[in-house]
């Protein structure tokens, strides 16, 4: 049981990374990034090629994840989302656009990488044991890097000028504009950061989970669940959501065989939303 | 009016007679018709201003209900069809009560999860649904008898024409009913939910009730569509209707235009024809769907029919100026800049 | 019988007390104005009465019936209708359609009747259509009846909102800052219309900042500051009340000549 909890905590941290990316984009631009899972998937493929095939340094591969996905994020925001927000009379259009981008990325991945499942060599072969709990070195690396990245993100949002601008934009677009903030640039930044968070999470979890083109859809659904539990658009909500999902998954798969786990998780989400319609930490206004 | 007559003639008489031997071509229209019924349900939820990405769950549900009733209880298809719809509608009603209260995004994301949940349920109800093995060899519809009078003869294997007319009739009935609903006061009340759900209750409109009406009808239509599909394809698996299908139903509505009741039908037919026609490049099918979605959203976000009808178009005010306090004017300006 | 009775009404938002133990009553066919400096909680009172917000404490009675726990549409059905501070109309419908839709409570036929388009339903719709045209005529909106509301100028929108509220056949009408953004001419015309509404037997409560309009039209005034009632009485009394002057203008400094 303790093993499951520890696993849950470690997994939860990485999941929190994914949720943070999604919540960042949602908070700033009020768009649900349907392509979030696919961005994760691209990140895992980047690590597969740079680290697994070309044998570069793993952390450098992670850095490439950030760069490439940030670039994709910038392109999406600048050419797709900025235009749709201006053009459309209905709010649903940006959602359909987001879905379109998700399908696009998935299809490009399928055509480029094929259907095969891939894997990468572990970065650390040892298994640490503390008090009867076994922690593979791999997972420890993933856990540590996740925590570092989350901390870096939180510091960025809290203390930098741009972080402040993002928080302001999330709270009130019009007032932020009146304050002289270039909302186009901040939106672009926010989207790029959200995308790279998904990408780097994909790169990290490539050490643990199989890599294939269809992994995006599942990750998208998981990230939605995290946001729904924790609350959309708020940073602590994403972290809590990530945590809870990590724990539920770990304990669920440990105790209950088969696929019933996710069924229970989905019902748990409905329950949470009945009690707190905006998620645990969600703030009204979204 | 003339247009309706022509299309009706084409749909019910000319096409089927012309192609009655060409099963492939009949199949495309059958599939399109059933997809249209399902998408009309999704359209109705768009009318109240919500996005339903979970319709595939109810299609799956309807399909399984029909499959199980037909095989286990030997129930006639003609009973299973409405029962599937009613079961789907009932479950939709029960789920709708807690989830329709949720704000926009949460509702959307949750409906997405419903599709996954439905698949998991069907996967794990082994005794009833045979889990991953699915249910196969579902019998074709038998004869519909009233006493000793045969109203509809039993379907014969390989007879696509019967399915053609079955799906066509169901589509036409659905369209008529929904058209009537949309034009009635109920339809107007539904529209108020999207345009101002703060003003509506003040006019005495019970927004909870009307949301439920729209959602329940949507799920009912999903169930009907599932029932039709399962008896056409004669097999069902937990993965028969997935998240991507929910997305496709939405896409058909968008393509045709969310403001028009014919939108989803146009979208379903157009896209189904296009992709069957382009079977050669099926490898790129999803990719092309994706590019279509993106291009469409960027250049024609209000759907194809908006080209023809220009409904909801925004014209400049007759005198071009707007009075109001200075604060109002500043607000309008800022709103435009930050759109 | 008092048309509206508010007792001990309190609303807390976390630490902020927006409405503090408010008591007031409104008599039959009276025009009562709620005034007070910005942020005093006046619109919140409307939100509480019409169940857009739930009160933390207190009770609201309409014609001797407790309405505190009811939902907005139920309260509307009983006869309490409000307008909104921000312009709130159905944006993709024409002005006439707005008014017709708002007649929902006048329908004798239920949803099934309308769906099946029974003879009674058609009768209903005809009656409502005529009633809507008459209502719009009263507000001078006939020329723009087929115009989409998003194209209408501000003044006509405000009039339309009141027409929409009247379509629900209220016995008590709550008007939230109806005179905002109007020039003196429009204000005078609206004052006339509001009086006309009262003469039809409808009780009116106003929230308003435009003092000229308030003093002209009100039978009684209740002054609210920081969520509490600080004065109540006829317009002449309120104009001379020191607490009210203080609330709006602040205390005079002792040091300077008073």
Condensed summary:
Chain B has 339 residues and is mainly alpha-helical.
Detailed description of the structure:
The complex is a heterotrimer of chains A (286), B (339) and C (258). Chain A is mainly alpha-helical and 286 residues long. Helix content of chain A is 75%, strand content 3%. Chain A is built from eleven helices and two strands; from the N terminus they run H-H-H-H-E-E-H-H-H-H-H-H-H. In chain A, helix 2 runs parallel beside helix 4 (92-113) and helix 6 (161-171) packs across helix 8. Chain A is globular, with a radius of gyration of 19 Å. The N and C termini of chain A lie far apart (38 Å). Chain B has a domain at 23-242. In chain B, helix 2 packs antiparallel against helix 10, helix 3 (55-72) crosses helix 10 (207-233) and helix 4 packs antiparallel against helix 10. Chain B is globular and about 75 Å long. Chain C is of the alpha/beta class. Chain C folds into two domains: 1-79 and 170-253, Rossmann fold, CATH 3.40.50; 88-169, no CATH class. Chain C is built from ten helices and ten strands. In chain C, strand 7, helix 7 (184-199) and strand 8 form a beta-alpha-beta unit. In chain C, helix 5 crosses helix 6 (154-167). The model of chain C is unreliable at 254-258 (pLDDT under 50). Chains in contact: A-B, B-C.
The oligomerization state is: heterotrimer
Q: Structural class of the helices, strands and pairings of chain B?
A: mainly alpha
Q: Which pair of chains forms the biggest interface, and how many residues does each contribute?
A: A-B, 56 and 50 residues
Proportion of beta-strand residues of chain B: under 5%
Query: Strand order, biggest sheet of chain A?
Result: 1-2
According to DSSP, the number of beta strands of chain A is 2
Domain count of chain A: the total is 1
Mean pLDDT of chain A: 86
Report the radius of gyration of chain A as a whole number of Å.
19 Å
Main sheet of chain B? Answer: 2 strands, antiparallel
> What is the overall pLDDT average of chain B?
84
Number of strands of chain B: 4
């Amino acid at each position: 049981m303790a093993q499951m909890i520890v696993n849950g905590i470690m997994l939860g941290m990485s999941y929190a990374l994914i949720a943070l990316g999604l919540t960042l984009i949602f908070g700033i631009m009020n768009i649900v990034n349907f392509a979030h899972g696919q961005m994760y998937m691209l990140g895992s493929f980047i690590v597969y090629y740079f680290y697994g095939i070309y044998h570069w340094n793993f952390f450098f591969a992670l850095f490439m994840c950030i760069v490439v996905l940030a670039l994709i994020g910038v392109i999406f925001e600048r050419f797709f989302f900025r235009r749709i927000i201006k053009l459309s009379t209905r709010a649903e259009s940006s959602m359909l656009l987001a879905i379109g981008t998700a399908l696009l990325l998935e299809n490009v991945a399928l055509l480029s990488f094929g259907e095969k499942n891939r894997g990468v060599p572990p970065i650390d072969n040892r298994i640490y044991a503390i008090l009867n709990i076994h922690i593979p070195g791999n997972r420890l690396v993933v856990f540590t890097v996740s925590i570092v990245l989350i901390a870096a993100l939180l510091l960025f949002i809290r203390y930098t000028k741009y972080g402040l601008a993002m928080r302001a934009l999330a709270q009130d677009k019009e007032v932020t504009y009146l304050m002289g903030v270039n909302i186009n640039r901040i939106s672009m930044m926010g989207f790029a950061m959200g995308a790279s968070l998904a990408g780097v999470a994909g790169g990290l979890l490539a050490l643990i989970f199989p890599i294939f083109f269809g992994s995006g859809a599942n990750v998208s659904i998981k990230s939605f669940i995290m946001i729904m539990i924790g609350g959309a658009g708020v940073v602590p909500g994403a972290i809590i959501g990530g945590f809870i999902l990590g724990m539920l998954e770990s304990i669920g798969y440990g105790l209950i065989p088969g696929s019933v786990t996710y069924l229970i998780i989905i019902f748990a989400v409905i329950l949470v939303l009945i009690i707190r319609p905006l998620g645990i930490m969600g703030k009204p206004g979204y | 009016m003339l247009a309706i007559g022509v299309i009706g003639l084409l749909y019910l008489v000319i096409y089927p007679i012309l192609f009655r031997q060409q099963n492939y071509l009949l199949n495309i229209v059958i599939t399109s018709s059933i997809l249209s019924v399902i998408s009309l349900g999704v359209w109705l939820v768009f009318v109240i201003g919500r996005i339903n990405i979970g319709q595939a769950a109810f299609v799956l549900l309807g399909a399984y209900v029909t499959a199980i009733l037909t095989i286990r209880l030997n129930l006639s298809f003609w009973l299973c069809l409405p029962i599937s719809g009613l079961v789907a509608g009932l479950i939709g009603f029960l789920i709708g009560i807690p989830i329709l209260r949720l704000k926009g995004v949460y509702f959307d994301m949750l409906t997405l999860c419903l599709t996954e949940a439905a698949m998991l349920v069907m996967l794990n109800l082994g005794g009833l649904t045979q889990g991953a093995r699915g249910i196969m060899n579902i019998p074709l519809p038998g004869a519909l008898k009233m006493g000793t009078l045969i109203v509809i003869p039993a379907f014969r294997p390989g007879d696509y024409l019967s399915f053609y007319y079955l799906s066509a009739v169901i589509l036409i009935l659905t369209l008529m009913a929904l058209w009537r609903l949309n034009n009635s006061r109920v339809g107007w009340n539904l529209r108020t939910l999207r345009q101002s759900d703060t003003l509506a209750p003040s006019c005495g409109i019970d927004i909870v009730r009307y949301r439920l009406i729209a959602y329940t009808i949507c799920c009912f239509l999903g169930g009907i569509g599932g029932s039709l599909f399962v008896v056409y394809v004669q097999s069902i698996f937990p993965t028969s209707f997935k998240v991507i299908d929910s997305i496709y139903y939405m896409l058909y509505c968008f393509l045709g235009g969310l403001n028009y009741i014919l939108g989803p039908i146009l979208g379903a037919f157009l896209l189904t024809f296009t992709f069957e026609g382009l079977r050669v490049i099926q490898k790129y099918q999803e990719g092309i769907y994706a590019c279509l979605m993106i291009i469409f959203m960027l250049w024609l976000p209000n759907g194809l029919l908006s080209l023809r009808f220009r409904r909801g178009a925004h014209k400049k005010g007759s005198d071009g100026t707007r009075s109001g306090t200075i604060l109002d004017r500043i607000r309008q300006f800022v709103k435009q800049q930050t759109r | 019988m008092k048309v509206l009775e508010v007792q001990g009404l309190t609303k807390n938002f976390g630490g902020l007390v927006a409405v503090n133990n408010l008591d007031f009553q409104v008599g039959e066919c009276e025009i009562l104005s709620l005034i007070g400096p910005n942020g005093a909680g006046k619109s919140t009172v409307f939100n509480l009465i019409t169940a857009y917000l739930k009160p933390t404490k207190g009770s609201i009675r309409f014609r001797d019936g407790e309405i505190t726990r009811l939902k907005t549409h139920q309260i509307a059905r009983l006869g309490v209708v409000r307008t909104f501070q921000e312009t709130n109309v159905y944006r993709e419908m024409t002005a006439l359609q707005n008014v017709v839709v708002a007649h929902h409570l006048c329908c004798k036929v239920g949803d099934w009747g309308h769906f099946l388009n029974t003879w009674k339903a058609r009768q209903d719709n005809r009656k409502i259509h005529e009633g809507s045209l008459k209502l719009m005529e009263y507000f001078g909106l006939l020329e723009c009846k087929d115009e989409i509301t998003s194209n209408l100028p501000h003044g006509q929108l405000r009039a339309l909102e009141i027409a929409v509220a009247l379509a629900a056949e209220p016995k008590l009408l709550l008007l939230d800052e109806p005179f905002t953004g109007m020039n003196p001419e429009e204000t005078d015309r609206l004052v006339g219309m509001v009086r006309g509404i009262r003469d039809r037997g409808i009780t009116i409560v106003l929230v308003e900042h435009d003092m000229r309009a308030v003093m002209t039209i009100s039978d009684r005034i209740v002054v609210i500051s920081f969520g509490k009632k600080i004065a109540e009485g006829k317009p002449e009394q309120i104009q001379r009340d020191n607490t009210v002057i203080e609330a709006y203008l602040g205390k005079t400094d002792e040091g300077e000549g008073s």
